[in-house]
Structures are given as C-alpha cells and as structure tokens.
Design brief:
Strand order of the largest sheet: 3-4-5-8
Structural class: alpha+beta
Order of helices and strands: HEEHEEEEEEEE
Largest sheet: 4 strands, antiparallel
Distance between the termini: 35 Å
CATH architecture of the largest domain: Sandwich
Oligomer: single chain
Helix content: 10-25%
Length: 150
C-alpha cells in the first residue's frame, strides 16, 4: 500500500476516533479588520464536567465595527463566512434609517434592505458561494466589508 494512502487512512481513523469520544467540538475563526479569515481553532472538550454553555452570539465569528467617531453607533456582521443566514446587528443609529446591500465582485446588487436599530437576518441561501461586498449606508456613514458565502 502506498505510504500516502496509508497516512490518509490513519488520519481518517484518528479523526473519527477523536470525534466519537468528544463531548463538545467548537470551531472558532479569527478575522482581521478587513474581514479576512486569519485563523481557525478547533476546541474539543472530552470531559463533560468541564463543559460550559457558550453564548451563541459570542461564539459566532464575524465583524464588529464602530460606525461613527464617538463610538456610539456599532454594526456587527456574523457569521462570516456564512452558509445561509447572515445577521447584521445595528445599534446607535438614533432613529436614522440605513440601508444594506450585498454586491457581487462584478458590481451587481443581489440583495438590498432598509434597516433601523436592531438585529436583521439576511437570507443568502439562494446566492452562489463566493466573495461578496456588504455595503452599509446611512445619512452620514458609508462603509463596506467583505462577506464570504460558503
């Protein structure tokens, strides 16, 4: 048997064995300020006594950024990369309306929504996997972020 195939089979067996004994397995992604994924960490907790509940919003990888100079308005985008639902949470707009658009690399707008303060779930399930740009615009703020659709 080829050495490469033997190594692959051993790796698969080890992975299955580890997964069958794991109580909790959590994958965390790290991002830079431009939304580029820069790290991936797998945490496996085999001891149920050491398991702890994780706030679902805290465990989701994404982008959080202040929108204005005084830091009173914030925008969170998660999870990024996403598979189907992308959540955009806006706080501190002070009754100003804003809009969010998802744009392809060729400039085509595939989704556009008006939003106010609060959490908004955007359904991206009908979009093809790839890299998109999320454009946020309000009366005095215009920003963009890279979004990855798996």
């Amino acid at each position: 048997m080829n050495t490469l195939y033997r190594a692959i089979i051993i790796a698969i067996i080890m992975t299955v064995a580890m997964a069958s004994h794991a109580q909790n397995a959590i994958v965390h992604f790290g991002y830079d300020n431009n939304g580029n994924r820069i790290s991936r960490t797998l945490t496996i907790d085999r001891n149920e006594e050491n398991s702890h509940a994780i706030d679902s919003t805290a465990s989701l990888s994404g982008i959080t950024e202040t929108l204005d100079e005084d830091g009173s308005a914030t925008l969170s985008i998660y999870p990024n990369p996403t598979h189907d639902i992308l959540t955009v949470a806006v706080n501190g707009l002070n009754d100003n309306s804003a809009s969010v658009s998802i744009v392809t690399v060729s400039g085509g707008v595939v989704l556009s929504r008006e939003m106010s303060d609060g959490r908004h779930d955007l359904d991206l399930s009908n979009m093809s996997p790839g890299i998109y740009t999320l454009l946020f615009s309000s009366s005095n703020i215009t920003k963009s972020w890279k979004i990855i659709k798996d």
